[in-house]
Amino acid sequence: MLTRAVYPGTVKTLEEEFNLHKLWLAPDPDKMVVELAPTLRVIAGGYGCNADFLAKFPKLELVANFGVGYDTIDVQYCKKHGIRATNSPDVLNDEVADTAMGLLLCTARQLVVGDRFVREGKWLKGPMPLTTNITGKTMGIVGLGRIGQAIADRATAFKMNIVYHNRSKKDVPYKYYPNLVDMARDVDVLMVIIPGGAETSKLISREVMEALGPTGILINVARGTVVDEQAMIDLLKSGKLGAAGLDVFEKEPQVPQALIEMTENVVLQPHVGSATHATRTAMGQLMIDNIKAHFAGKPLLTEVPETKG
Ligand code: GLV
Ligand code: GLV
C-alpha cells in the first residue's frame, strides 16, 4: 500500500512491480485499510504511520519511507513488533543543501524583494535599499548530519565560517558548541537541519532565537516542529530576530498568515528541499530497491537505525 502521492515515475514502477493499493486515491480510505488489514505486508510512502495506524496491520513487515526524515513513522512501535523501516538518505543531500543556500541568499541578499522591486516599477524611482553580505559571516549548523555537511561544504565555498551544534562532537574542522544558545549568540546565520520528532520539538526556542538576535538569519530546511513557530513570528515582528528563510512549517500546507504578510524579511518555500525531478526519482528508486530487497530476503539498503536487528 502506498500512502501518498510520491513521484509519478515511482508510482508507475510500483504499479508495474507490485500489487499496489493507492490509499490517497481511495474513495473510502478507511474501507481500503479494513480490507487490506489482514494481509498487508508493506506500507510505502510513510506519513501518518503512528502506532494506531500501524496496529491495524498484523502482517506488516516493512514501512518504506519516501524521504530521509521519518518522524511520521513510530519506529519504537515498529521495533517492538518486528516491523522494519527504511528511509531515503544521501540521494537528496545536495538538493536540500542547495535549497538551504538558496534560502540564505534570498534572505541576506533579498533576492525575492529585489524581484518584486523591479516588477513593481520601484527601480524607476531610485535604487533598492542595500542588503547584507554572507562572505566572512559565521553559520551555525544545527544538526551536522549528511545534509548538514553538504551545507557546510557550500557555505565554505561562500567563504563563510562554520560552527555547529549536534548531539555529539564530530571529527570535523569546525568549532563545536554543546550549548545551542551559546552558539546562536555567536553566529550570523542559524541553519537548522536536524531530524524532527519528539526529541527535537521546539529545540529552536524563543531563547535561542533571541540569542540569534536582530541581525540574525534563521534558515529551516528540517521540520517545522523543530522551531517554536509562534515565538519566531513574535520575534520577527518585533525586530528581535532579523530574518527567516523557511522551507518547512508546523502544520503544512497551512502557513501562518503572519508569515505570509512579512514580505521583507521572510522567504517561504513549500517544503521543496529535495523536490527536483532527478532527486525525487532517486528517492523513489531507493524506496523501491528497499522493498525489493525485503521481498527477496536480502539485506535492506537503508534501514533506519531504530529498527535494525
Ligand atoms: C523531506 O523532508 C525528507 O525528509 O526527505
Ligand atoms: C541528516 O542530516 C541526514 O542526512 O540524515
From TrEMBL:
Q: Which Gene3D superfamilies match?
A: NAD(P)-binding Rossmann-like Domain
Q: Please list the residue ranges annotated as the D-isomer specific 2-hydroxyacid dehydrogenase NAD-binding domain.
A: 101-273
Q: Which GO terms describe its cellular component?
A: cytosol
**CDD domains tied to this protein:** HPPR
Keyword NADP annotated:
yes
Keywords, ordered alphabetically: NAD, NADP, Oxidoreductase
Report the InterPro entries cross-referenced here. D-isomer_2-hydroxyacid_DH, D-isomer_2_OHA_DH_cat_dom, D-isomer_DH_CS1, D-isomer_DH_NAD-bd, NAD(P)-bd_dom_sf
Question: What family does this belong to?
Answer: Belongs to the D-isomer specific 2-hydroxyacid dehydrogenase family.
Listed name of the protein: Putative glycerate dehydrogenase (GyaR-like protein)
